[in-house]
Amino acid sequence: MKEKWNEIWYQLRSMRVQLLLVMFLVGLIPVVLFSIIFIRTYNGQTISQKNDEVRSYGNVISNLIANSGYLSGTDSTEVEKEAEEISNAYQGRVMIIDQNLNIVKDTYEMETGNTLISTEVIQCFSKKDAFFSNEIGDYIQLTMPITDQSTDTVLGAVLITYSTKNLHLLEESINYRTILLILAIAICVLLISMLYSYIVSKPLQKVTDSIDNITRGETDVTMELKTYSELLKISESFNQMIGYIHEQDIARKDFVSNVSHELKTPLASMKVLSDSLLSQKGIPEDLYREFLVDITEEIERMTQIINDLLSMVKLDKNSAKMQVESVNVNELLENLLKRLRPIAQKRNIELTLESFRPVVAEIDQVKISIALNNLIENAMKYNYDDGWVKVTLNADHKFFYVKIQDSGVGIPEDVQDKVFERFYRVDKARSRETGGTGLGLALTRSAILLHRGSIKLYSKEKEGTTFTVRIPLNYVGQEQLAAT
Q1: What distances in angstroms separate CA 172 from CA 168, 208, 375, 429, one per listed residue?
Q2: Which SS3 state, helix, strand or coil, does residue 75 take?
Q3: Sign of CA dihedral 176, 177, 178, 180
Q4: CATH T-level assignment (fold) for domain 1-218
Q5: pLDDT for position 133
Q6: Exposed, middle or buried by CB within 10 Å (0-12, 13-18, 19+), for 170?
Q7: What is d(CA 275, CA 37) in angstroms, rounded to the nearest whole number?
């Protein structure tokens, strides 16, 4: 039972159902209210017009009575004829009462000569302009005074009762037709609401289907919603998201493939070397040592790949912890170059640092050290003997800039956009000689992006390469970005 109610509640929370109900109520409620107001106004005006019509006839017979001396005992066929005509015309009754409350004339001939004690009749004698209207069942009773215009005195009263059955029948007929009209309008509004709610909710069903397809692992899904501008924006954002997911899926597959290849190569080399050692007997110690050295180098290569992969995973996470602190960038670069100079000296590469001003920035010292160290090491690795590497530090009021220039082999223009991809290497043979894994620049870029910075590359083959890094002096984290 609870599940059934939950299902009903779930359906009621549907946008399509709620839109249907809102449109139906918005379309129907004004019609019902208008019909009720119209019927009541029409019925009220009909009764009022009928009262005014009968009252005008009452004034006519009142003037005839006052002018003819009918209440003084003078016979007047004109008065009696007018009373009969009013009685017949309105299916009612006319009574004429004198000052003594005696009924002088009753068109029903039932109360003539009797005394009529009525609050309305009595009040007519005290108010010469009095007029009273009372509804009694299917009849309305009008009471008005008979006034002598010459003496301005009340001589008696006229009581006219007329039937409202025809008016009630007309009212019932109008009510019946109004109900039929409201039902017809309700059906039309319901059909239009159902159609419109279906049209509005159909594109959203496409969104749901597309999301379900993504959940099943389909990343080549696209969405085209050419309806409302809001849904068009959703469609564009969705397609952008799908494109990003598709690219990430391709990158993930390439990453797994590259990792497998990079790890497989040293493993295959170690297997060949170990098989050679096992298959031969009486191997000289020098050859044995040479094979072990080669195996050790392959192990070190695997270790470096694994370490770089772990660093890449840490830097790839948006939630990567940033140990931000105020760091003297001048000292950081001096320490980096101090550690790298012995390596540069082996190939007689000149390594220099030029600082234009003291720079203190809010950075994660470890991550920035890794990024800059990779750039400087690459500048030395892919350089010529007796070459040079120049590191320049500068800053403005918002950013600090580190430029690494070298006199090395350069990077071909057609592959410069790919050098920051994981495992991409311009010269794979040379990279293996220098111990590169193809992850250095990817790590560098990730570390710089975590600082909301940027890195640019300019290079020409055999003329050297220049990397320019720009990093904000003040760190802006995710929380601060969300707040702005």
Answers
A1: 6, 52, 94, 100
A2: coil
A3: positive
A4: Beta-Lactamase (3.30.450)
A5: 80
A6: middle
A7: 102
Let me know if 329 is exposed, middle or buried by CB neighbors in 10 A (0-12, 13-18, 19+): buried
- CA-to-CA distance for 324 and 450, rounded, in angstroms? 11
Mean pLDDT per block of 10 residues along the chain (484 residues) reads: 62 67 80 83 82 84 83 79 85 86 86 83 78 80 84 85 81 84 84 79 74 71 67 75 73 66 68 76 75 78 69 56 88 91 89 94 88 89 92 94 93 77 55 53 84 91 91 76 48
Contact 408, 384 (CB under 8 A): yes
Residue 158 CA to residue 156 CA, distance in Å, equals: 7
Cα 390 from Cα 268, distance rounded (Å): 39
Indicate the SS3 state at residue 107.
coil
Alpha-carbon dihedral angle through residues 291, 297, 298, 302, given to the nearest 10 degrees: 160
In order of 328, 394, 475, the CA distances from 398 in angstroms are 15, 11, 10
Q: What's the 3-state SS for 398-412?
A: CEEEEEEEECCCCCC
User: Bridge partners of 400?
Assistant: 395, 471
Side-chain-side CA neighbours of 43 within 13 Å: the count stands at: 18
Judge if pTM exceeds 0.70: no
Closest CA to 385 of 424, 419, 349, 428: 349
Q: What CA–CA distances, in Å, run from 275 to 20, 270, 280, 285, 301?
A: 76, 8, 9, 16, 20
How many angstroms from the chain centroid is the CA of residue 163? 62
Match domain 321-483 to its CATH number in 3.40.50.300, 3.30.43.10, 3.30.1490.20, 3.30.565.10. Answer: 3.30.565.10
Radius of gyration of the chain (CA): 52
Give me the torsion for CA of 369, 370, 371, 376, rounded to 10°: 80
Domain covering 220-316 in this structure, CATH number: 1.10.287.130
Question: Where are the domains positioned within the chain?
Answer: 1-218, 220-316, 321-483
Q: Can you point out the beta strands (E) in 424-484?
A: 454-460, 464-472
- Predicted pLDDT of residue 403: 96
Going through 237-378 in order, the beta strands assigned E by DSSP cover 324-328, 350-355, 360-364
Tens-digit pLDDT profile for residues 459-473: 888 889 999 999 999
* Token pair in block for residue 246: 């598709």
Cα–Cα dist 421/414, whole Å:
14
Q: Which two tokens stand for residue 392?
A: 């320049």
Instruction: Say how far apart CA 366 and CA 322 lie, in whole Å.
Output: 9
Contacts by residues 43-49 (CB-CB < 8 Å, ≥ 24 positions apart):
43/167, 43/171, 46/167, 46/170, 46/171, 47/140, 47/164, 47/167
